[in-house]
């Protein structure tokens, strides 16, 4: 195990492989004996449904890594994040009347969180297991049968997205599956814990966005940008700013955060077009850092694009049980959050005519067909409304005592004047079976701001009730800890992105408060950072076809710049250089740990990767004074038969004059010095610490690569007539000395 927090669990994968055939047999039995009768009972048209073939295949799911949380959580729980990858060869076929429908292969990637709580002092030592996906898992299904219909691109995509939505409705936060392991364990508070907090996002402005509007390939006009903001399954869209590459939005959005660490804020920018909106860049922000900093107001560099920065102000709001914090906000922002635990209802009327005394009901009852339909139990769902937001529960079929067991959250602007409106409706007849109105001021009479009771239903029978638990919590911005070093722009992290979309971008540096010296030894953090650099490209070994590369869960290595600051001064020939390196908040380029199947081949890295002098790098300076450093990640991708060179960035370059430097990086794979095989990064304007994040590939066999030398030069882009020195520094790497399959990453 080479990572401090994410662990490879090969022993568990071996257990899964061994047990998979037995699991398949159990599932085949469940499909025939449990699922088939349930499907037949759902609808008249499904009465002939029969599973003709059920085979779960030879390939079992693989767990690429597990991250265990035991600190900063309750002492009576353990949290595990499982990075699951399933490329299955299962085959399931079913006949419905004359149609044959089936599945032949499934792909699924996602991070499954498993919470073991409460921990007990007697067997089985764990009270219950709670499961959910942090984000919607990536899903691909190969359909079989009804080929002429399901091969139509629109229908195929639609069926996949319908199933994804079905999974999301049950398995993605805030939904959870809780399995009690001990009798008499109250699982209600495990299934519906109070959220961790609320993130308020002020989407302010952006600058230097990429031009996307073009006509016949020529850039014609400016783009029309808008933003999509997402936390978990909740997504908001900003307004569109017409024809502006430096748009100003000044909009505010609020998200409920259910799990920290785990949930992140995702922001995607698009250019609105009549046909298809163009992607303009994205951002992934770690909410743990925002929670710790309380308030973050920064310009964040966009990733997966060539230029652009986004200005966000993020506020973390804690949920407090304090009525004094419930003052009404003059700007119209939320001051509280209402959590509704919808449990069940009792004695619902079969239809709303049964208790309404009017001619309308009597006339319709005469219709014999309608009478038969009304005799059965209602299929009911609930509409809950606070202010102008309405949420809908799932439908419970054919029951006058339905149990929903769901939780809903609402933002509240004024707890003293707003109300919760509840309406139970019948799915088949779209008629109301009962209503109830609860004034939120009733909750203020309780010291815990909680109501857990049955509420009498109006416009229903006299003994019809609905059981709910209502919890009101005030939103409070706490003062940040003055001792803490703020994460600031470092809160942004690389997300689970497709390999093909990666592009360079300039890092915008903002002077942070002077960082304190980290108490953690730098070795472990540095090696974690460099492991993560290697993971960046190992993803592509999953699939030779880049376009079908699926997203892989990622984790952040936090606080890396603190570790860089605590380097041993003796590695630096000049103390002045050391101070400069410590002062610049050089955010390490890739802050992620990716775990693809190919990661098994990665070994440990030298712990001195961030040291200034390195044995296998040959500095061609010709001077005693160093000319700066370049950070590179080099590895051989066996599946693609290519040498991958990732130019991450440079730091502490020495300017040839006081006019500033516009650096770029040029690469040759010696002895080939042809112009056509030269690789070159984009030019970064006026910076001595450029960030590139640009990837280059040389398609050669491993044997040939082993005989070659990488020639890498950092150059200054200057006018043709300028007398300034062009080359800023050069490095040569003898590839015969390196383990390229394992790869290396260093300054």
UniProtKB/TrEMBL annotation:
**Biased amino acid composition, Basic and acidic residues:** 533-542
Q: What is the topology of this protein in the membrane according to its UniProt annotation?
A: Peripheral membrane protein; Multi-pass membrane protein
Record flagged with keyword Transferase: no
SMART domains noted in UniProt: C2
Residues forming the SMP-LTD domain are: 5-182
Query: Which SUPFAM superfamilies does the annotation name?
Result: C2 domain (Calcium/lipid-binding domain, CaLB)
Q: Which domain of life is it from?
A: Eukaryota
Q: Which GO terms describe its molecular function?
A: calcium ion binding; calcium-dependent phospholipid binding; phosphatidylcholine binding; phosphatidylethanolamine binding; phosphatidylinositol binding
Please give an example of a GO cellular component term from this record: plasma membrane
Write down what this protein is called: Extended synaptotagmin-3
Q: What is the species listed in this Swiss-Prot or TrEMBL entry? A: Chlamydotis macqueenii (Macqueen's bustard)
Q: Which taxonomic lineage does the organism of this UniProt entry have? A: Eukaryota, Metazoa, Chordata, Craniata, Vertebrata
